[in-house]
Amino acid sequence: MLPAADDLWPGRPPLLEDESFSSWFARVAAANGLRPAELYRLVQPSGGLRPRDLDRYGDIHLLGAMADKTGVSREALEQSTFRRWAGWAFERDDGLVKLDWLPPAGREKAKRCFGQQVCPSCLAEDTTPHLRLEWRLSFLTVCPMHGHLLLDRCPACNEPFSILRQERREGVCCWSCGADVRRFTGDHPPVDPIPVQQNLLDTLNQGWRTLGSYGPVYSFAALEILALIARRIAGGKYAYGLREWISLHEPRLSLPPETLPRVHDWALLTPRARCVLVAMAHHLLGDWPHRFIVAARSVGMASSSVYNPSNEYVPFAYAHAVEWHLKEPHKFGARYEVASAKSVLERHGIKPTYRNLKELVGTKLAAMSEMAEPVGQATPWGQGRYWKLDGVSAEVKEAARHAAHRSGENVAAWLDKVLRKELKLPDMRLS
Length: 431
Description:
By secondary structure, the protein is mainly alpha-helical. Among the domains are: 5-85, no CATH class; 194-330, no CATH class. It contains 18 helices and four strands. It has helices at residues 21-31, 36-43, 54-57, 60-70, 74-78, 120-125, 194-206, 219-234, 239-249, 271-285, 290-298, 303-306, 316-325, 332-347, 354-361, 367-371, 394-406, 411-422; strands spanning 105-108, 111-114, 208-210, 216-218. The strands form two sheets. Strands 1-2 form a two-stranded antiparallel ribbon. Strands 3-4 form a two-stranded antiparallel ribbon. The radius of gyration is 24 Å and the shape is globular. The chain starts with 20 loop residues before the first helix and ends in a 9-residue tail after the last helix.
């Protein structure tokens, strides 16, 4: 039954195709002369001062109230939230579990969250600028229409995007500095991730994916396995070894392992780094499980180092492959990891001493003692680990480190990007 006309709000913008609920909620607020936070307190007086990520946490009461006051069906509003992907991108969501490919957006208490991505070019071409729900998927890093990297933070102030916190009542702008997002331009990606993105979107839309001898598995299980692989490549003591193996066996992903930041939570990586990480994980997912097992064995991974069956639930296709093929540790892997670390240090002009190897790998390995080079004289000026900042004041060094951190990059990648822009050199791309 449709609500009576007297019960409807005066401002009732239609929900656009593929628009996210947060985006539409902000437009409804603007159409009625309110900020998103003011509308939220009006609809849910006991919900707090500011709304949380409504794409995930918009409950049935909020959706029902918005449907009653705007005339948009509840079913359409549900499809504009993460409920659209329940049983597809994730098995279930109780509001507490971590969703691998749908990280939080905006701010969660004092934590900055970069789950909201945008394409400035799409927004500039929109008759009505709005956010797409698909931009929330973290394996989507490049706009398929414009070929540019999506943005997950404001280039002007490095704050995460959060349309529910913006003060201006029209368009899409940065809530912190007020910059119009349409003025920005995404960079070119270092690799072409479009085929990988489309393959993963096809998996999501079909609801299943064939994984070798394990046959068709649900799409949320395949995406969870992809996330588990990405976690191993992103951080931990086997990260550099896995990256080195992939670069040797997949020419389009041939890049030094230190190019990507080494992180515990890969969801915090910028779209630039994430597009490479997802492509690497997708490569190991192919020909499941044989390619992953060969790579894991080559770097010395064992089942005990991959997951703990007593307190961690993983899909059967992953657990069985790991238990069956990686039950025994492979001692050679430690030497492979140390050899990879040595090559990284040598490329940067750093002597691969025991201390330098331990700092890079993040742990002690027995092979380091025999493979490390003895300590010698100090590294000549201009060839040290931080050669790019030699002769620069401590104040500038600290400012560069802070700027790189806020941009989500390591200092080397951030400085390379800044210098290329200043010197008018092309963006770094992989063949």
